[in-house]
Specification:
single chain, 240 residues, alpha/beta, Rossmann fold, four-stranded parallel sheet, 4 strands, elongated
């Protein structure tokens, strides 16, 4: 057969083959998988599934002006509301407790005997005694039974006129009375216009302010320069 005849035969054969059923490569793949076609399989076909509706925003998830989402990298701390300031009431100076001489105790030296014991001389065991100094007065107070001073008003003549300017001992006397529950302490002063006792009233007044007791102040002495008219004192107790 000539070359032209062979070419014509191949053309006719190709034309005859082209008129046959078209060959789909996908059918070839289906046949290779034993008839399984994923296009029509419910396990992988998403077209038959019911779509899940999108979530509806809730009021809590919607940002508001007071609940803004913080910017990345920035921590926002809500401002605390300022607390109302509470001012403490002003501290008022306590008024001196009312003094009752009939129920008061008089301790110390001869000034205490004149103010509350009728001027009696006294002895070592008496509440007041002539010539008693500050240290002996402190020792006497310390030896009194518990409860002696509780709730009582005490008039104290410290004894410094006899023993000298022993101010620490005077402080100890007052603190002992306070620690033992005295209702009040009234400290007797020193004579005025007597150079021997210069500065005594100033020191006794300072101790009284320091420890919160009543200072009776200085007084004008009699002819001896030490004692005075006890009836003029606000804490004088007359004997019946």
């Amino acid at each position: 057969m000539s070359k032209q005849s062979q070419a014509k035969s191949k053309a006719q054969a190709f034309q005859s083959y082209g008129e046959a059923q078209p060959y789909d490569i996908r059918d070839r793949d289906v046949n290779a998988r034993g008839g399984f076609d994923p296009r029509y399989d419910k396990r992988t076909n998403k077209s038959n599934e019911t779509p899940t509706p999108a979530s509806t925003p809730t009021p809590d998830s919607i940002p508001t002006f007071d609940n803004k989402a913080p910017k990345p990298g920035k921590v926002e701390t809500p401002l605390a509301k300022p607390e109302a300031s509470i001012q403490a009431p002003p501290v008022m100076d306590a008024e001196p407790p009312e003094f009752n001489p009939s129920n008061a105790l008089y301790y110390g030296d001869s000034l205490a005997t004149g103010l509350g014991h009728g001027g009696a001389r006294g002895n070592n065991d008496s509440d007041a005694m002539w010539g008693r100094g500050a240290a002996d007065t402190l020792a006497l107070l310390n030896n009194r039974p518990d409860g002696t001073f509780r709730g009582r008003d005490v008039v104290l003549s410290s004894g410094v006129l006899n023993s000298g300017a022993d101010w620490d001992t005077v402080r100890s006397q007052v603190r002992l009375l306070q620690n033992r529950g005295a209702n009040s302490v009234r400290l007797v002063g020193a004579p005025l216009n007597n150079d021997r006792f210069g500065g005594y009233n100033q020191n006794l007044s300072s101790i009284s302010d320091e420890l919160g007791i009543n200072f009776l102040g200085g007084y004008t002495p009699g002819s001896d320069g030490v004692h005075f008219d006890y009836t003029s004192s606000p804490v004088y107790r007359p004997l019946n």
